[in-house]
Amino acid sequence: MKLWVHFSKNLKYFSIILTMLAFIVSILEVLGISSIVPFLAILADPSVIEDNEFISYLFEKAMYLGIGSYEDFTKVVAVSAISLFIFSILGRAFYNFLTIKFIAGCEYELSVAMFKKYVTSDYEHVIANDSAISKKNILSETFMVSEHAIAPMVTIVSQGLTLFFFLFAILIVNIYVSIIVLLFIIVLALFILLPLSYIVMYLGDRRFKYNELRFKVTNDSLSILKEIKVRGDENYFIDQFSQISSNYRKALSLMRGISIIPRYILEGVAFGSSLVAILFMYLHGTPFSEIIPIVTLYALVGYRAMPALQNIYTSFTAVRSMRGSVRGLLAQLEHQKTNQKVNPVNEKWDIIGSDRVVPTVFFDRVSYNFPESDKTVIEDLTLELKPGQCVGIVGKTGSGKTTLINILMGLFPPSKGSLKYQINDNTYSIDTVPSVKYGYVSQNIVLVDRSLAENVSLTETDENINYERLRICLKISDLTDVVDKLDEGVHTFVGERGVRLSGGQRQRVAIARALYAEPSILVFDEATSALDIETEKVIIDNIRELSSEITIIMIAHRPQSLRICDKIYEMNSGKISLKDAKLVVKND
Questions:
Q1: How confident is the model at residue 345, as a pLDDT?
Q2: Starting from the edge strand earliest in sequence, which strands make up the sheet with 390-395, in order?
Q3: For residue 556, which of 582, 576, 535, 536 has the smallest C-alpha distance?
Q4: What's the confidence (pLDDT) of residue 212?
Q5: Can you spell out the DSSP letters for 25-62?
Q6: Level-2 CATH architecture, domain 7-335
Q7: pTM above the 0.70 mark?
Q8: How many other C-beta atoms can be found within 10 angstroms of the C-beta atom of residue 429?
Q9: Number of other CB atoms surrounding residue 133 within 10 Å
Q10: CA 480, CA 477: separation in Å to the nearest integer?
Q11: CB 518 within 8 A of CB 354
Q12: Which of 320, 328, 411, 337 lies closest to 138 in space, CA to CA?
C-alpha cells in the first residue's frame, strides 16, 4: 500500500509486532477449540484412550506424571482445554487493544503528514487548490482511511490467519469434509462476494465525491454568510447542500447495505455445509461416537471461523470502498511540491536596536507565468530594494503588484531571471541567503479565535509571549487605547475570524502581528485600506520611524498612504517604472 511509506519507522515496527502477535493468537485459538475434541471423544467413548493413537500417546505421557486412571486423565484434558480457551481469549483481547492503538497511531501520523504537506507546499499549489478539500482530507479523510481502510486490512491479516489455521485443523481431522467446505467457500467467493465488492467500490467512490462537495459547499457558504443573508440567498445554498447530502446518504446507505448481504449468505452456507458433512460421514459408515466429536469441532470452528470469514469479506469491501479516499490522500501527499525552507526565529530582535539581517534585494530580469498558463504576469522586471528604504508600489488591479510581492517573499519562484540578496558585499541566491524574515500585512485579515495577544504573536501562548515587544507593537499599530478599553486587555478573545473587532481594528492587529514577527522586510498590501485617515496617519508616522531599521514595501490605491515612501513605482501590465513620489502624493 502506497500510504505505507508515509508512516514512521516506529509505526512500521509496531505493525510487524502486531502481525507476529496475530499469528500467535490465531494458533492459540485453534488449539483452544481443537482441544475440546479429545475431551468430548473420551466422554462419548472412554475406550478411545486406547483405540485412538493420538489420545493413547497423550495418556502414556500423562502416566509419567502420576496420572494413571482414565478419570484423572479426563479431568486433566478438561482443565487443559479450558486453560487453552481462556488463554486464547486473553490473547485476542490484548491483540485488539494493540490494534486500536495502532489504528489511532496511523490516523495521527496521516493527519500530521497531511497538515505538514499542506503548510509546506509551494504557495502556487496552495492557491490553485480548494482549501475546503484540503481541510476535509486533513480532518475527515485521514480518519476514514484509518478506520475504514487500514483497520480492515489489519482485520484481514488477523482473521485470515485464524481462518487458515482452522481450515488446517479440520483438514487433519477429516480431509474429505474439509474439501467440501472449501469448495463451498470458493464458489461463494467467485460468484457472489467478488461481484458485490465491485458494486461497493463504485459506491465508495461516489461517497468520496459527494463528501468533497459537502465540505466545499459548507466552506464556501460560511465564508460569505454575511453576503448570503443580505442578498436573501439562504434557500439556494440550503437546497444545494441538501441535494448533495442526499446523494451522499444514498451512496453511503447502499454501500453499507450491500456490505452486510454476504453475512446472511455465509450463515446459510455454513449451515448447509455442516449438514452435508454429517450426511457424508454417515453414508460412509463413520460410527456415531466419532461423528459427535467431529460435528462438535465443526460447530465450534464454524462459531469462530464464520465470523472471521464475514469480517474478512466486510473488511475487503471496506478497503475497496475507500479507494477514492486513499487516492485523494496520496494525491496530496505525493504530488504537492514542498518548500521545506523555514526561517528560524531570531530571539534577540526587539524592534528597536535589533541585530537583524537586512539585505539589498535585486530583481534580475524577473518574469513570471502562473503554472499551466501562457500569460505573462511579470515581464523582464529589474528592481533594487535597499536596506532601510521605504518603497511604494501603485498600479491598477491586475497589473502584477501582488505577484511581485509574492516573488519577493519567496512564495512564487521566478519563471525567468532570478532574485539576488547582497549582505556585507556578499551575494546570495534565495536558497543560500541567511535568515531574512518578512512581515506581511494583507487587506484580507484573518484572525483566529484566541486572545488578542496570541493573535499578535501567532505562534506563542499567553504564557510565552514577550509582553514588552507586544506593547511596542501595539503602540506602533495605534492599538493601545483599544486594548485599554477591553475588559481583559490583551487577553480578550477576539472571536472567530476576529468578529468582536471592527475592520480597522483587525487591520491594526495584523500590522502588530507583522511587527512582532521580527521582520527584515515589511510588506503592506493595501494594509491600511480599512483605516480612517487620522488613524492611518498615526500608524504611517510610526512606521516611518522604523524605516531606518527595516525595508518597507507599501502597495496602496490611496496615494496619500505613500507619502512616507522614498520611491514610488508604478506597475503596468507586468512592467515597472519609477514615478515622481512628490507628484504622486500631490495628485491625491
A1: 34
A2: 438-442, 521-525, 551-555, 390-395, 567-572, 575-579
A3: 536
A4: 78
A5: HHHHHHHHHHTHHHHHHHHH-TTHHHHSHHHHHHHHHH
A6: Up-down Bundle (1.20)
A7: no
A8: 10
A9: 19
A10: 8
A11: yes
A12: 328
Asked if residues 368 and 403 have their Cβ atoms less than 8 Å apart, the reply is yes
Which contacts of 559-567 are long-range, i.e. CB under 8 A and separated by 24 or more positions?
559/394, 559/584, 559/585, 559/587, 559/588, 560/533, 560/585, 560/588, 561/528, 561/536, 562/392, 562/394, 564/390, 564/540, 565/390, 565/391, 565/392, 566/389, 566/390, 566/391, 567/389, 567/391, 567/392
Cα separation, 34 vs 26, whole angstroms: 12
- 8 Å CB contact between 428 and 360: no
With H, G, I as helix, E, B as strand and everything else as coil, classify residue 438: strand
Number of Cβ within 10 Å of residue 132's Cβ equals 19
Give the pairing of strands 551-555 and 567-572. Answer: unpaired
Q: What stretches of 266-408 adopt beta strand conformation (E)?
A: 360-369, 376-385, 390-395
| 445: nearest Cα among 379, 399, 513 | 513
The whole-angstrom distance between residue 496's C-alpha and the CA centroid of its chain comes to 23
Q: Is 112 helix (H, G, I), strand (E, B) or coil?
A: helix
Residue 462 pLDDT = 74
Distance between CA atoms of 46 and 61, rounded to whole angstroms? Answer: 17
Helix or strand holding residue 118 (H, E):
helix 70-119
Given a contact cutoff of 8 angstroms between Cβ atoms, the answer to whether 265 and 187 are in contact is no
CA distances, 153 to each of 14, 161, 185, 264, 297 (Å): 15, 12, 20, 22, 28
Sheet holding 360-369, edge to edge: 376-385, 360-369, 416-423, 426-429
Q: Are 483 and 490 in contact (CB under 8 A)?
A: yes
Task: Determine the straight-line distance between the first and last CA of the chain, rounded to whole angstroms.
Answer: 63
Specify the pairing of strand 567-572 against strand 575-579.
antiparallel
Q: For the chain (length 588 residues), average pLDDT per consecutive 10?
A: 76 90 87 74 72 72 75 81 84 90 87 78 63 71 79 85 79 69 69 75 82 78 63 78 89 80 68 69 67 66 68 72 72 58 37 62 89 83 87 85 86 87 82 77 78 82 83 87 86 80 84 84 78 74 71 79 82 82 56
Q: How is residue 155 written as a grid cell?
A: 482485520
Alpha-carbon distance 163 to 182, whole Å? 11
Q: Please give the grid coordinates belonging to residue 48.
A: 478411545
Q: Please tell me the distance from the alpha carbon of residue 321 to that of residue 200, in angstroms, as a whole number.
A: 6
The domains of the chain are located at: 7-335, 360-586
**pLDDT for res 342:** 40
What is the C-alpha to C-alpha distance for residues 74 and 80, in angstroms, rounded to an integer?
10
Residue 463 DSSP class: T
Q: How many CB atoms neighbour CB 174 within 10 A?
A: 19
Burial (CB < 10 A; 0-12, 13-18, 19+), residue 182, is middle
CATH, domain range 360-586: 3.40.50.300
| Grid cell 501595539 in the structure block, residue | 474
Cα 546 to the chain's mean position, in Å? Answer: 41
Contact 462, 547 (CB under 8 A): no
Give me the pLDDT at residue 579, please.
76
d(CA 87, CA 29): 8
Residue 343, phi then psi, degrees to nearest 5: -75, 125
Q: 440 has which bridge partners?
A: 523
Quote the pLDDT of residue 226: 53
